[in-house]
Amino acid sequence: MITIETDSDSPRLLHIVVSGRLTHQDYQLIIPKINRIASHSDVGEIDIYINAIALIGWEPRALWDDIKLGFKYSNYFNNIAIYSNKKWLANLSGIGSWFVSGNVKHFTDSQKALNWINDKT
């Protein structure tokens, strides 16, 4: 399951919560929201806080959706803070940072992640 929220004070700061095993259907709900936000943003303007503490993983098709979304908007992302307690996700975050123009940082403390992303916006 995936949810995305924006703050009216900072519409280019996205709060994303992911849990369970992400599916293609999850991405069919989230992609239009990302498209809409990106259409009103310039390159390097989107900051993202991802709460992935309850993430188990992706179905193969959903992983492909995630990769395509990342490539499509890689230049739009400024800073991405990922909160989880999973080593594999920390490693994946490091790899993901190669494919986006902004900064990607993994945190095991949600408050530190929020502080980092808010200080960057």
Tally of domains: 1
- What is the succession of H and E elements? EEHEHEHEH
How many angstroms does the end-to-end distance come to? 26 Å
Overall body shape: globular
List the uncertain runs: none
Looking at this structure, what is the CATH superfamily? SpoIIaa-like domains
The beta-strand count equals 5
Assign the CATH architecture: 3-Layer(aba) Sandwich
What is the CATH class designation? Alpha Beta
Largest sheet: 5 strands, mixed
Q: Biggest sheet: strands side by side, in what order?
A: 1-2-3-4-5
> What structural class results from the helix and strand content?
alpha/beta
Radius of gyration: 13 Å
Helix content: 40-55%
- What amount of the residues lies in strands? 35-45%
Q: What's the helix count?
A: 4
Mean pLDDT: 86
Give a written overview of the molecule.
The structure is a single chain. The chain has 121 residues and is α/β, with parallel strands linked by helices. The protein has a single domain, classed as 3-Layer(aba) Sandwich (Rossmann fold). It contains 4 helices and 5 strands; from the N terminus they run ββαβαβαβα. The protein has a 5-stranded mixed sheet, sandwiched between helices. α1 links the parallel β2 and β3. α1 packs parallel to α2. The longest helix has 16 residues. It starts with a strand and ends with a helix.
Write the layout of secondary structure elements.
Elements: E1 2-7, E2 10-22, H1 24-39, E3 46-58, H2 60-72, E4 77-83, H3 87-96, E5 103-107, H4 110-120
Helix pairs in contact: 1-2
